[in-house]
Amino acid sequence: MQIRSIAISWLIFILTGVAHAGIDYIPYDKTIDYATPNYLSVGYTDAGENTSPTVNIVTGANISGGVWGYNDSVIYVSDGYAKFVGLYNGVRFYFGGGSVFRLDGWDSSIVHLSGGEVTDLTRIFQKAVFSMSSGSLGSFEAYGDSKFSISGGSVSSTLYARDNSVINMTGGTISGSFVDVYNNSVFTLHDGNITGGLNGYDSSTVNINGGKVNYLTAGADGKVNITGGTVDGMWVTNRGTISLFGGSIGSDTSVTDSGVYNQSGGSAVRVVASDTGHVNVSSGAINNALIAYDSSAISVIGGNVATLIGLGTSRTNISGGELRIVSSAASSTVNITGGYIADRVSASNGGTVNIRGGLFENGYVEKQSTINLFGSGLVQTLVDPSYQGFWSHYLLSGLLSDGTDITGKNLYVENDATAKVNLVYSAPVPEPAFLQLGVLLGISGLGGLRLRRKGCLTRAPYTSD
To answer: Alpha helix locations (H) across 190-326?
Structure first.
């Protein structure tokens, strides 16, 4: 008995940091409605024998030491106070009222919280299961294949999920500054409200099917899938991936440092790629702007984008979708092989646009910038050499490489010698570059024309992108 008592006292000291001399063993069914400074050891006799009692903690209980449950015991709490609760070996803990300062669940223990509060820290380990339908928690941490389900109530501080743990949220509120998901853990939000940040790192997975998140981050190979709900803003970085299939993003999405953003549904306000970030859009809507900085890369094969801007040394490929404005500036390159640009496509401040397909209504070329049109029978006819006192206005005709007829489309070229448009012959079936060059130079003076200041036309060599 003395050896068992010393062992439990030492365990309590290691886990709680508190030395306490008194231990009350509770091997049989009992109701606790009184104050005690001792620790209650539920599920052991004072001789160290295993038991599985049912214990009720009710009004009047004030356990200033703590409660330890073992060996499939059942503990009900409807009122009162315990400084610490530790659960082991499959203990079932039903918490409907009262207050606990700190709670730990281990070894496949099961906790049901339907009321009351844990004011400081709750932790679960080693396949423990915690479900919450009401009540409140301070901080929460899940480790080692444990599971946490929240359908109501609130978590008022931070929440961590680590080491293959699983968290499912179908209601309630997490109002702490952040929720961190690490180490192959999975967090799924169906409904409810996360008022701080939700972060997925280290090969973890975050699924958002509904509810609301203030700010979302994916990094270090973390993956986020969004099929519904609302997220106010997002950041994807350091090999993280965010995939938007549905739902809405209320403010900026930032894509940096080899992060990947995929959009195949839903709506976003503005998406900004920088460093070596990658953006892929196949469906859905970006209602304000899609912007590429630095060495980032953008691919648009579908969906609706209000404005697309390439800057820095970024590279953008457009093969589908509907866009209102497309702009290349500051040494960036935009390649267009498909899609529809409803307002304008422009090159400015050193930008380059290569157009092989798709349809556009208006093209604009400013000084030190280039638009290359690839196709057959391409002709430009000068309409106004001083449109608005700044541009030379041309009407285009002919076919792009994909067969799109651009007859009647407008082209505006700044009246500066460094503003360039190259009309490059391109056969429907790609040919080696030297054959294209031969054809280009042999076509009755129409191929390879370059627009210059005040509409002067000069022959240009084949220009590749």
So the answer is: none
Query: Is residue 361 scored above 90 in pLDDT?
Result: yes
Contact 105, 126 (CB under 8 A): no
Alpha-carbon distance of 305 to 268, in angstroms, equals 10
| CA atoms lying within 13 Å on the CB side of residue 98 | 26
Gyration radius of the chain's alpha carbons: 33
Buried b (16+ CB within 10 A) or exposed e, 219-241: beebbbbbebbbbbbbbbbeebb
Mean pLDDT over 372-396 rounds to: 97
pLDDT level of residue 427 (50, 70, 90 thresholds): confident
Question: pLDDT tens digit string along 171-210?
Answer: 999 999 999 999 999 999 999 999 999 999 999 999 999 9
Residue 82, SS3? strand
Residue 287 carries which side chain, given as an amino acid letter? N
**pTM of model > 0.90:** no
Give the contacts of 397 (CB within 8 A, at least 6 positions apart): 377, 378, 379, 380, 381, 406, 407, 408
pLDDT band at 428 (very low <50, low <70, confident <90, very high): low
Angle at 129 between CA 65 and CA 125, to 5 degrees: 65
Sign of CA dihedral 131, 132, 138, 140: positive
Other C-beta atoms lying within 10 Å of the C-beta of residue 445: 9
